[in-house]
Amino acid sequence: MSVALCLCRRVCEFLVVNRQESHRGGGPCAARISAMSPRSTLHNPVSYRTAGVLLVVSGALLIVGQVVGILRWKGMYSLTENRSSDLMASRCGILRDDSGVRFACNPASSFTTTMVICSGIAVILASLLMVLAARREGDRGVYGTSLLLGLAGLLTLVTTMFTVDDHPRIHDVSLLVYLLVMWATMEVLVDSATRHAETTGDAHPLIYGAYVPITRVMEFFSIVGALTLFFSGRDVMPGAFERVALDTLTVWVVVFGLGLFSLGGAADRERLRVVEMEKLQRGARSTAPSAAALAGFGRKANDE
């Protein structure tokens, strides 16, 4: 939580500085300088790279929370019958819902729930950083993806407020909406990247290369898992298909974060290369003889 508070403080400082620069009339110039500075994203917390790190951390928190819950489970946790939501059940007992009847008892449910909450907060912070970085860089195609991703993080928090044992209906509805929002996020991202490549020929600020087909494939598997769970009901491994639908998205968030981080690193290297080239050009111009000196060179010898 201290890391999240520190990051929030840095973001607030960034907003205050930007507002002060805009009041002084130096906003656009400062933005151009920031875009070309090699320190603009290497040392600036408001960047796509930082958002990528937060997304990777988000996925890692979910995985850690689930692994600890499974290890602390009383009895035998069934990957095919028990839902991933059972790990956040607030008390031990028999659960009855549309997925069937099963036993749920995770003594570390508070830890698992805390990890899920931190994961959702990390996604929301990543979405906020993506919006701020897009505003600074002028990347309008980022807004749709980042806002949908932030909504998905908010829905993650909702699922922890309404647990599967106390509010099963609300929990299931929030999970369904979460799936729809995540699929929409992936669709908007891929569509934006495709149109960006067709119109500009450059990589999209959020995704590039093999990450585009990977996103398509993982979205397909998630949809297939959700549809199989919906139509098969409680008879055919509900826990397994729910995991396919949800855990595939968790893995994609990590992959997406890694792509953001690596793409940001490539952008940093490109900025550094441009800055070094400009330094070399300025150095060459400063050491070259002036036009006036060249104009008088050899004239006296020719006159003689």
From TrEMBL:
Assigned keywords, A-Z: Membrane, Transmembrane, Transmembrane helix
Record keyword rRNA processing present: no
Record-annotated membrane-spanning stretches: 46-71, 111-134, 141-163, 175-194, 206-229, 249-267
Record organism: Corynebacterium variabile (strain DSM 44702 / CIP 107183 / JCM 12073 / NCIMB 30131) (Corynebacterium mooreparkense)
Entry annotated with the keyword Glycoprotein: no
Name of the protein described by the UniProt record: Putative membrane protein
